[in-house]
Amino acid sequence: MKLISHRGNISGVYTDLENTEGYIQKAIDLGYEVEIDVWYKDFKLYLGHDGPEIKVELGWLLDRSEKLWIHCKNFESLSFLSDFDLTLFFHEKEDYTIISNGKIWAHNLLNIDNKCVIPLLTKEDITKWEPTEVYGVCSDYIELLK
Q: Distance of CA 136 to CAs 50, 51, 106, Å?
């Protein structure tokens, strides 16, 4: 099962650090993959959850492509990044969305299987979850599953 850090968080939510290059890299160095939020605006890429906040270079993303799960936050980022060998997805409120690697991002935990990546974002989500066969779990508390 893939253990995926949510925005670089591994043991709690640190909003001042998440979606920053150094924080993401630290999670990668600890052996995790990382889900990040990416925007494309005015021909530039940015990290940020609620909007484009921190400029990031395409090369930085490509150098870490095997460890990143890129949540494209606007159509422009999805369109631009789809030309590259990156793991991408876009969703807003859908129960399920297809990821570019053929896996399924599943917010509806009632119907999941070994093709699904599920977000268990809170500590309570992880402690209540009865482990089942899934492809991966994304969490701010991912170290609890290591």
A: 24, 26, 10
Tell whether the model's pLDDT for residue 121 goes beyond 90.
Answer: no
67-90 confidence digits (pLDDT tens): 999 999 999 999 999 999 999 999
Q: What is the pTM of this model?
A: 0.96
> Kindly report the CA angle at 141 between 138 and 35, in degrees rounded to 5?
30
Count how many domains the chain has.
1
Distance CA 79, CA 58 (A): 14
Q: Name the maximum alpha-carbon separation found in the chain.
A: 44
In three-state form (DSSP H/G/I as H, E/B as E, the rest C), the secondary structure along 18-70 is CCCHHHHHHHHHCCCEEEEEEEEECCEEEECCCCCCEEECHHHHHHCCCCEEE
Q: Which CATH number is 82's domain given? A: 3.20.20.190
> Which structural domain range is residue 62 located in?
2-145
Nearest-5° Cα angle at 97, 95 to 103: 120
Query: What pLDDT, on a 0 to 100 scale, did the predictor assign at position 64?
Result: 98
Element (H, E) at 142: none
